[in-house]
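Researcher: Please predict.
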Amino acid sequence: MATSLQKNRYAFLVFLFLLFCLLYFFFFTKQTLEPSLSVYKDLLLKAPSLSPLLSSSLELANPPSDVYSPADLGTSETPIGKPISPISKREPIDLGNSSNSINGEILKERTKTSLSENELPSPAPVQKVNTCNLYMGTWVKDEEYPIYTPGSCPYVDEALSCQSNGRRDSEYLKWRWKPYDCDLPRFNATDFLERLRGKRLMLVGDSMNRNQFESILCLLWQGLPNTKRMYETHGYKITKGRGYYVFKFEDYNCTVEFVRSHFLVREGSRINGQGNSNPVLSIDQIDKSARRWKRADILVFNTGHWWSHGKTARGKNYYKEGDFLYPKLDAVEAYRRAMRTWAKWIDSNINLTNKLVFYRGYSSAHFRGGDWDSGGSCNGEIEQILSGPFLDNYPLKMKIVEEVVREMKVRVILLNVTRLTNFRKDGHPSIYGKSNLEGKKVSTRRQDCSHWCLPGVPDAWNELIYASLVFKQLSSAFHI
């Protein structure tokens, strides 16, 4: 009987073993695993659009701050990636266009410059995105530059069209900004416009921002199959005198705009004791053009160069807070208070769910032997600054900007271009700010060593905006 019990127990154990094997093969076959594996496969092949719940670890600048959240700006919801009309019914900002993109690049049937299904939109290794400081790097020679041909773009002001005005050297056109720790994605006008589809991109600031505005118009213009589908909505031509432009891109139902605001705070005038009108700057009031800022989806601000001009630098009977006119106020302190006024307005008026804000940092000037109004010059400069203390020059204004941005509630992307412009003493118009088709001797009396030739350095600023959007998308999509 004991033998019989042993045999039954052995048979029962064998039965349990066989049952376990059957269950093991049933639950862990390839067919059973495939649905769960496909979740990860889809995640890698289709980078999702940015979510307001995802925070980026991308270090854009000091401070490393940025913000982006999608939300509907119009009266009705519109599917991502489809044209909408009119412009007032705007779709949410979506840097990746998730419903019509693969890794943030537009599908092949929608653009001739799309990437293949398994490619990333950036040559930078994904693992480096979260550690790459875009503003620490060097300029490298690139024979594929410039992105657009000198003299070809109809939106460059005469004062910035250096080659058309007689500048003969061209090596300054061949430089590309290269961060130390990663590569910037190649500028793709079609992809940039897809990211702007249904949106309003607005640059607000002084003539340096107009310099950047003309650059971005040219960068996008050169990528259009039909350039007649891009136009200024009021029929205005680019001139120094006009302070407001709206360029429409019909095929993408988006606009790129410029609003002039020298100080970002309110300029005005007062009547002095002799009955004459004198200019004043109300550093506690936002500029009157701010009503236009509210309409934009993506904003790029700057101010700085006008704070070193005569009356602004002297600060005598010029700065005003409330009804009080300061007999004398230091220009640096006035700048700090003005920046805080701007920051307060941004914090009070910018909704994190439907706006994206950049602040572009101070752009270096390269006068030698004087300043812009005292005989300073830069003609004959055909090489970069490669060493010396000037490369480490960091204006007090930028330290103030960093301080103010760090204290803001709204997170702002700081385009910290100061250092990359320090190198480029070769990039200014100098004496080539006016057409000289007749071959007359060019006057060297007044030279422009503040603004930049186009094509040229401001193209890199706009490449950095594009890279910020692409890298932000990658860092969120891959959770790095």
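Model: The two ends are 68 Å apart (CA to CA).
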